[in-house]
């Protein structure tokens, strides 16, 4: 199983868009691929469930559940985070072939579309390390070939705060402790060179590997797009996994090549 953390040069740069394209491409390459969005801010209450658009898109793009073998080998059994801890698989309510439940794709759903640590304070929710890791562990029990975990915002996303809203802990600390390789989505727009370089420097300084980066043409109207792309290629030593054009049919060949590199 390969797993990656998907970060971006900012919020709204196409992390979800790229994650979904990679998940779809992986499935076309016959891989079981699922996405994870542990923290989402900006949710709507629908039928008693807090629903986030990113999570919905990731749900649609993810493979259907297959339960090959968890701690016991019975098709149709599912491990939840409680019984993973006790080494058991008990829950009988989800079978192979079903869509991944939204609450598993997005365990921490915050109502206001604001910085998650501030939303969490307002909603009296704890953005706990354990919850993020347990959610990941749960998805790992499905034994996908590829698991993509989308961050929120950019690399240094505050999770917890002390006095005066001083951040004490970041989502990057979770990725660091999980030692996950990172895929960096660069939203191709003015300012992206600085954002890409600083983000890449921060990831490397955290001791993590950038498996590659994706140039996402998020606006379709960046002036001097090609020149900026050349500069990024010259400055980032990590491989360009794919170029994602603005609003077009998925570039099958480029995506397939990207999947070959990360599978
Ligand atoms: N290549 C693209 N072509 C067309 N639209 C795109 C492209 N990439 C992103 N978008 C659109 O731009 C918006 C922002 O993209 P997306 O939601 O994937 O960003 P994000 O980085 O995941 O944001 P967040 O930080 O909120 O999670 C969305 O409406 C998405 O559909
Ligand atoms: Mg997103």
| CATH class identity | Alpha Beta
Tally of discrete structural domains: 1
| Superfamily (CATH H level) name | P-loop containing nucleotide triphosphate hydrolases
The Rg value, from CA coordinates, equals 18 Å
Mean pLDDT: 90
Helix-and-strand structural type: alpha/beta
Fraction of residues in H or I helices: 25-40%
Please state the second-level CATH architecture: 3-Layer(aba) Sandwich
The major β-sheet equals: 6 strands, parallel
- What gross morphology would you assign? globular
In percent, how much strand structure appears in the residues? 15-25%
**Total helix count?**
10
Question: What ranges have pLDDT less than 50 throughout 5 or more consecutive residues?
Answer: 69-92
Could you characterize what this model shows?
The protein has helices at 15-28, 53-61, 81-85, 102-105, 116-123, 129-140, 171-178, 192-205, 225-235, 252-262, and strands at 2-8, 33-36, 39-41, 43-46, 49-52, 108-110, 146-150, 158-161, 167-170, 181-187, 210-216, 240-244. It has 263 residues and is α/β, with parallel strands linked by helices. It has a single domain (2-262), classed as P-loop containing nucleotide triphosphate hydrolases (Rossmann fold, 3-Layer(aba) Sandwich), CATH 3.40.50. A 6-stranded parallel beta sheet has the order 2-7-1-10-11-12, with helices on both faces. Strands 3-6 form a two-stranded parallel sheet. It has a two-stranded antiparallel ribbon with strand order 4-5. α1 runs parallel beside α2 (53-61) and α1 (15-28) packs across α10. The longest helix is centred in the N-terminal third of the chain and has 14 residues, at 15-28. The N and C termini lie close together (8 Å). Adenosine-5'-triphosphate (ATP) binds at residues 8, 11-17, 54, 152-153, 216-218, 244, 246-247. Magnesium ion binds at residues 15-16, 54, 150.
